[in-house]
Amino acid sequence: MDRQILAKLNALRRARQAAVLVTDLSGGPDRLIVEGEAFDGPFADSVASAFRSGKSSAVDIAGESLFLNVHLPPPQIVVIGAVHISQVLAGMAELAGFDIRIIDPRTAFATPERFDGVDLVADWPVDVLKERPLDAYTALVAVTHDPKIDDFPIAEALKAGCFYVGALGSRKTHASRVERLKHEGLTDADLARIHAPIGLPIGASSPAEIAVAILAEIIAALRGRDVSSPKGDRR
To answer: pLDDT tens digit string along 37-86?
Structure first.
C-alpha cells in the first residue's frame, strides 16, 4: 500500500471516519474513497453498498477486477437516560455489534448495579459530550422524558450528523420538543431527522419490546444511510 494512502487511512481511523480502499487486482494504483465525498463512475453503486454493509469484497466492473476493502469506525449508540429500556437495549446492542454508553445525571438511576459492565456516566450530557463528542457513526437515543436532560444531546446529535437521532415521547411531547429546538437555531430539515415516537411501529409496549423497536430502527438507519452526503459537524 502507498505510504500516503496508509497515512491518510490511519488518520481517518483516528477521526472515526469511514473509507473504502479500492485495489486494482491487475496491478493498477490503489484509490481511497472517504465516506461523505462525492464519488461516481461505474463502481459507484458497489462502493456505496460496501459503505452501507461494512463488508469487503471483490467485484468485477467494466472489465476491471477490484477489491473493495472497507474500513468503518465501530458504530456506537449513546443513550441519554438510565431507564428500564436502556438496560435491555444495552445488552441487545452489544450482541448486534454496537458499542454503547449511557449518560444520565440522575444518580438514583445511573448506578453500576443496574448497568453492570456498561459504559455508564452519571453526569450532565452537556459536560460529557464535550469530552466525548458525537459523530456520524453514532446513534443518539434520548429516553428520559426530561427536556433539561434530553434537549441538548438531541441538538448536538443533529449538528454532528449522527446517523440516527431518536427520542421517546408522544406526538404532543415531540411537538413541544420541536418548538424548543427551533429556538436553538435548528431548521425544519434538521428536526425532521428526529425519529419520534422512537422505534419502528411494531406496537411495542414493554421496555424490552420498545428496545427491540429502537434497535431495529437504528440498524435500518445505519444500513440505509446516504453515504455520499457530507458528514460531520455542521455548526
So the answer is: 877 777 788 999 999 999 999 999 878 899 999 999 999 999 999 999 99
Q: Is the pLDDT at 13 greater than 90, yes or no? A: yes
Kindly state the cell numbers that stand for 208: 424490552
CA neighbor of 18 nearest in space, from 58, 70, 91:
70
pLDDT of residue 115 exceeding 70: yes
For residue 169, CA distances in Å to 37, 58, 80, 141, 152 come to 35, 45, 13, 12, 16
- pLDDT for the residue numbered 2: 83
